[in-house]
Structure formats: structure tokens, C-alpha cells
Amino acid sequence: MLTMVFGSFIAGSSPEGSAAIAYPVFTLLLKIPPPVARNFAFAIQSIGMTSASLLIIGLRVKVEWNYIRFVTLGGICGLVFGTFYVVPLISPVMAKLFFVSLWLSFGIALWRENSRPKRYVFESIQHFNSKDQLRLAIFGLIGGIISSIFGTGINIFTFCLMTIYYRVSEKVATPSSVIIMTIETLLGFFLHVIILKDFSQESFELWIACVPIVVFFAPLGAFVITKLPREGIARILYIILIVQFIGAMIVIKPSVNQILMCAATLIAGLGLFMYLAKLKREADPK
């Protein structure tokens, strides 16, 4: 229960879904099988993130609809492909270490960008064109595959592109990513319940127990971000990413080879995100 209090609040207030908290706790601490944890993540987010999205839309919070449309298009394809062809091949522990290492590298890159004296940000993608449509769809495709493994991922993965490359304000990108993950999680829930029929009794019981919690705390998180400045939202994200990484290291106790993989992922991720940050688009101030 306590896990879902924090998880659902984070799901509504950041580009991280509640599965970013629930998945490692359930699989590593509570020893719940990864498929059960993933299916529970889709189920519980279908309630919590839908509630948060309805609040965002109802309050007319500023979002980037081009981002939402084209990432969702790619994400649907990625989720379906990943569910059937990628998930059976993935080691849960290695995947989780890759997950937390990559997002930590993004957090470092975003902190570096925000520490600059003058960082220009926008409330939408400037000069949106067909190349942007393709770029967002490709990132959505990859993000959808990530979500098929963990029950979350497309939101934070595409949030990286929005804030680092497109320089869209965290205050706009965050609620936009919540809506994207809502659509993705509803599809994931449908796939596992109706198509694959692998939604276990254990997942169902966990879901029913946690619904009253997430239906309150996820919208509360979404409301809180409407009151915070952009810098405040970024700081919350830094804390989540650092705690997530440290927690995974403590719980998993990685081997030397796994630590080397984490280091390689961290370095490669920093290189990627810093490269994106250096790219200049037509709309950027000179």
C-alpha cells in the first residue's frame, strides 16, 4: 500500500509512471514474479493515470498535443511488438539495471542544462514539421517497447527528447507525458487481459486492493505540478532518478559485470543526451 501511495503520486506529478516505483519493489523486495508485477502496473496505472489525465484535461493544463499524438502513434506499435517479440527474451534484472542507469544519465544531462545561466525553453515544439513527426514516432516506438517490459517507460524516454532536444518546459512536458502513459497503459491492460489472457488472480487481487489509493494520489500529484515552477518539477525528477538508481543498486547488489554494464549505459546515455542538447534547431535562439 505504501509503495502505491508514493508510486501513484509520482505517476501524476512526474514523467515516471507508478511502475517505476512498484516494479522494482514488487520484483526485488517482495519477490513477486516480473509478469505479475508488469501486469499489475498496467492495471493500476489504468486507474491512477487515467484519473490524473482527466484532472489535467479538466483543469486545462498546458500540454503539447503534437508530442502526445505522434509519440502515441509510435508507442502503440512498440507496445504490441515488444509484448509479443521482446519481453520473452529479456532478463528482468539486467533490464532494470539498464533502465535506472539510462534515466540517471538523463537526469544528469538535464541538471547540466538547467544549471546554465540562460536556458531558453518553450511551451511547445517550435516550427513543427514532418521530420519532427517521424522523430517523435520513432522515440514513441522505442518507448513502447520499453513499456512492454516494465509497464512504464515511454513517458520518461520521450520526455528526455522533449526537454533536452526540443527544450520544451518541464511544466508542459510532464503533464503531456502523463497523458501519453495513460493511453499506453490502457492498451497494455487490454492486451494482457483480453488478448493474451495472462492477467493472474494475484495481479487482480493487488489491483483491487490499491485502486482506492491511486485514484486519489495520482490526481493529487497532477494537481501539485500545476502549482510548482518549472525548476521545482525538474528538482523532483532529479531526486526520483537518483533514489531509483541507488535503490536498485542496494536491492539487486549487482555483480562486477552488471556494474560494468551500468557504467557503460550511464556513459553512453550521457553522450546521447548531451549530443541532443548541443544540436541546434531552427527555432533555437542563437
UniProtKB/TrEMBL annotation:
Location of the protein in the cell: Cell membrane; Membrane
Keywords: Cell membrane, Membrane, Transmembrane, Transmembrane helix
Membrane topology: Multi-pass membrane protein
Pfam families per UniProt: TauE
Superkingdom of origin organism: Bacteria
Alphabetized InterPro entries for the sequence: TM_pro_TauE-like (IPR002781)
PANTHER family, sorted: MEMBRANE TRANSPORTER PROTEIN
Protein name according to UniProt: Probable membrane transporter protein
